[in-house]
Fold these 2 entries.
Entry 1:
Amino acid sequence: IFSSLFLFTFNLHDVLKTMTEAQRHCRENYKDLVTIRDLEDLETLKTLVDLSRMRAWIGLYDDSWRWSLSNTSCYKPGEAEFRGWRSGEPDNNFKTEYCVFMWGDGTWADDRCPWPLQSVCFDVRETGTTIRSIENQD
Ligand SMILES: [Ca+2]
């Protein structure tokens, strides 16, 4: 169980992966594909990770838009409902857009899960400094 008192660490992965591959990689090496609970999380992520000129999978997916980190005890009321959609998204443009990536400006869009993109994993720590980590290869 954690709350907003717990710090997230964000890990950007440049290696292109499908959403399923990215989710597996994050779960094996970190906590999960990133959960974004509020504007503070979003701003922290944008500050620590250079998202410019990239598109990266985040942990939101499924036609009901649920977080990859699904344990409800991990969220305070409302935190699992935070969304940062880009204007006009989600549009399910290809009728199969059930995964969500983040643009360089931090806004989100739905897209096809098999599309190879970068990804952002996260971990949770109780105290300490939020760490920026970039991996160029597995
Ligand atoms: Ca879309």
Note: The first helix runs from residue 19 to 29.
Entry 2:
Amino acid sequence: MNQNTYKAWFEKHRPRTINELIFPTVLNGEGKDPQYIKTIFEKFYNQEFIQGNVLSYGPAGRGKTSLNKIMQAKIIKHPNDIFILGRKTEDVDKLNAWLQARSVKSNQKLVVIEEIDRLSQQAQTILKDGPLEKYQDKISFLATTNNAQKLDPALLTRFNYRLFFDELDFNGAFGRSKYILETENIKYDEELLKQFVQLNIKRGLRELISNLEINSVTGEFIFDPKKALNLTGNEDYIIQTIVYLLAYLNNLDKEKVNDINKNSKSDSHFNQYYEYILKLIKQDLLLNYDYIYKNIIENDSIDFGTKSIFVDDYQQLDIVKMKNFHFLSTFSKAMDLIYKRKDL
Ligand SMILES: Nc1ncnc2c1ncn2[C@@H]1O[C@H](COP(=O)(O)OP(=O)(O)O)[C@@H](O)[C@H]1O
Ligand SMILES: [Mg+2]
């Protein structure tokens, strides 16, 4: 038989041990060092016994299923010692009988429930009413969901460990990416990889690894951060210049600011920069205004009042047609504020 051996990287490199998994940073609603959470699960792993029920929640591709598979592979020594609870109604009846049975060979029996929010109401009620606590000395329940908000709080509290897999630890994701590239024999530049991970980590690790694979087809990891952000290359210059001009205006006296507001040519230093921005805004049709607004808003040297003007107009950005004029109008509002403030 001609077996196709190709496997997508994210599947091929699914973590198989505790050390390969990047641990989340929130346990039972509280921010924690991922290393701390890892220590707890390392102990469960080594003793082959999970002391409690575990709910992993958060968006797709963050490692929820991987954690369950790692624990399962270590603890389960006989197929009868694990119960995969699915959505069929008869599953619940089977579960009841299974719960009574002794473990065949494993230190502990496991019930695995993927997407617990999608179980029938009946199944959720049964779970809420007893088994998660009743069998705690013999059975651990491992559940995952993308929609923890949908779960009944009474059911949620039956899980002693609620792990929120959301924003993953940067160093973990970077280390994992390096490991995958090295295992796959791909040449890469460390700095470039760092930028790539920074830009992709919010989308989850599955997405990140998929993109890593796409960007490595030639045997070398290639990545253009500007393209990834949808930038033309002029945005950073515009941001820096706007920030500079706002600071410049803040340091002038009222009279001067008024003159510039009326006619930018009245100050040749100001005008030189301003004209160049106007030129860029006219000729570069693909400027990423989203990026420009965001970076001006996040700039530390912008004061609160000016920031509010940019924030307000940023919210309109999606609906305005002429984004270039919208942006110039925001800047002019900011100049106006600087002028008015000089009255006080
Ligand atoms: N926390 C993580 N640590 C290491 N690899 C991860 C992690 N999260 C996701 N991955 C990668 O993404 C793939 C999908 O992860 P998975 O555990 O199925 O995500 P989830 O169940 O949260 O949707 C894994 O096979 C692995 O390659
Ligand atoms: Mg999953």
Note: Residues 294 and 314 are 8 Å apart (CA to CA).
